[in-house]
Amino acid sequence: MITDWQGLLLRPDDSIRRAIEVIDRGAKRIALVVDDSGRLLGTVTDGDIRRGLLRHLGLDAAVVEVMNPQPRVLPQHYRREDALRLLGSAQVLQVPIVDEAGALVGLETLTDLLKRPRLENPVFLMAGGLGTRLRPLTDHCPKPMLPVGGKPMLEHILQDLIDYGFYRFYISVHYLREQVIQHFQDGSRWGVSIQYVHEDQPLGTAGALGLLPKDAVQRPVIVVNGDIMTRVNYEALLQDHDRHTPAATVCTRQYDFQVPYGVIEHDEQRITNIVEKPVHHFFVSAGIYVLAPQVVHHMTPQTRIDMPDLLKRQIDAGREVRMFPVHEYWLDIGRMSDFELAQRDVRQVIDRG
Asked: Into which EC class is this enzyme placed (predicted)?
């Protein structure tokens, strides 16, 4: 049982935004909702929040809108074997401990019962782009190597994945590839393995996957663009993919667009309604994917293809492509203003709690 569970508490009228802060700061991937007497009302996990985002709930909505009101619990006096059995059967990583009256008295986590294993999934980092929109910064430096907080963007991505237990890395390189290879070398500096996939000519945002050794791809592959800064929960992402086993899982980010005019709704020439400056909600790709091995195995080497086209092929073939909403910090560094914002936000990226 962990001893610092009091920092994971929420009240039912706390906001989803507050829940995200508690989950992130507590580093246990859960928050516990209690009433004024300390009785457990429910739990909130990363998945609960993402399902709320899929319903377009705002971050200021009350946490009761997304919490699980009937979580699995352990009694106050439990055996380790019982905890392992419950955590395994329920496919959860945490379980609250309550007394006979239903009052919360603790929290047990699977990671505290079992040491986190190394993750065998290969990780493919896309670092071959030209970065034309960031010129002149990229005239003599590949975009993933641009420094944020004194380290290349790509190193922040690598370190975050290492912290989650990944250790088998492949990096696609093309433009000014020597700088990437010289900095990361074989990965031994970080205690991991790094191999390089050389694009002799640009192969699009997904074509380099066809150059991966087929025998290296026996498990789902994590694919990450080398020009994003994020705190996405890779463990939750991989668990979601493994639970549903789709052809691909796409990390998505909600994008809101407000029409700056009054929008006319009509039936031919008869106006039926006028909506002043409506906000439309969309989900956009966050540049992070999980691909099933067969998707990579069927790719043709040295063939140019972009990721949207690869995913549409799977959809057209009747295979499932899932979305995984990202509520954590995320920034796509495509413009100079994005790069400047990353410098200001760097503490949100490197502070892991």
From this structure: transferase
Distance CA 337, CA 136 (A): 14
Domains and CATH numbers, the chain: 5-113 (3.10.580.10), 123-350 (3.90.550.10)
d(CA 253, CA 67): 21
Q: 125-144 burial, b for 16+ CB within 10 Å, e for fewer?
A: bbbbbebebbeeebeebbbb
| Cα–Cα distance for residue pair 192/162, rounded to 1 Å | 8
pLDDT at residue 347 tops 70: no
Q: Are 321 and 119 in contact (CB under 8 A)?
A: no
Containing 296, the helix (H) or strand (E) segment is helix 293-297
Phi-psi region of 193 (alpha: psi -120 to 50; beta: other; left: phi over 0): beta
**Per-residue pLDDT at 134 exceeds 90:** no
Residue pLDDT, tens place only, 82-120? 777 777 766 677 888 888 888 898 888 776 666 556 788
The residue type found at 184 is: F
What is the rounded distance in angstroms from the CA atom of residue 33 to the CA atom of residue 70? 11
Give me 63's structure tokens. 């946490």
Where do the DSSP E strands lie in 99-190? 104-109, 123-126, 147-148, 151-152, 168-173
| pTM as predicted | 0.70
Cis? peptide before 136, omega within 30° of 0: yes
Measured CA distances, 15 to 65, 105, 126, 189, 207 (Å): 9, 23, 36, 42, 42
Single-letter amino acid code for the residue at 147: P
Three-state SS at 244: helix
